[in-house]
Amino acid sequence: MKHKVKTRTLGRDAAHRLAMLRNMARSLIQAGQIETTHTRALELKSFIEKLITKAKKGDLAAKRHIFSNIGCNDDAYRFLDMVKAQYAEKNGGYTSIVKYRFRKGDGAPIVVLRLL
């Protein structure tokens, strides 16, 4: 039974999963869109939208949270500037998931995750 299970483990332990989400978030910020599997995209969407909501506050605690989650200072500053410019008056729905294809090796559904 899956009662009270709030996250997908993605076949990894917590530290590896968090590192993977941070790396994928950094790639999404740099490129604007990434290709990944559907379940990873759902987890990353939740992760990045919480970061965007936090960054919209703009106070010191929010900035420290962003720096600790994104890691690289250049990407964090770029992320904070992007949030101020694009998402100031938007209340949610910062990303979109578009189904793209199926992976040849195992048939996993590949999607494109975009920042709107």
Dominant shape = globular
The strands making up the biggest β-sheet line up spatially as: 1-3-2
N to C succession of SSEs: HEHHHEE
Radius of gyration, in angstroms, nearest whole number:
15 Å
Q: What share of residues is helical?
A: 40-55%
The overall pLDDT average reads 91
Question: How many helical stretches?
Answer: 4
Termini, distance in Å? 36 Å
Largest sheet: 3 strands, antiparallel
Low-confidence sequence ranges: none
Q: Class by helix and strand content?
A: alpha+beta
Beta-strand segment tally: 3
Task: Provide the β-strand percentage band.
Answer: 15-25%
Q: How would you describe this structure to a colleague?
A:
With 116 residues, the chain is of the alpha+beta class. 54% of the residues lie in helices and 17% in strands. It is built from four helices and three strands, in the order αβαααββ. The protein is globular and about 45 Å long. The model has no long low-confidence stretch (mean pLDDT 91).
Give the SSE layout:
Elements: H1 14-31, E1 33-37, H2 38-57, H3 60-70, H4 73-86, E2 95-102, E3 109-115
Antiparallel strand pairs: 1-3, 2-3
Which properties best describe this structure?
alpha+beta; globular; 116 residues
Brief account:
With 116 residues, the chain is of the alpha+beta class. The chain has helices at residues 14-31, 38-57, 60-70, 73-86, and strands at residues 33-37, 95-102, 109-115. Helix 2 (38-57) packs antiparallel against helix 3 and helix 3 (60-70) crosses helix 4.
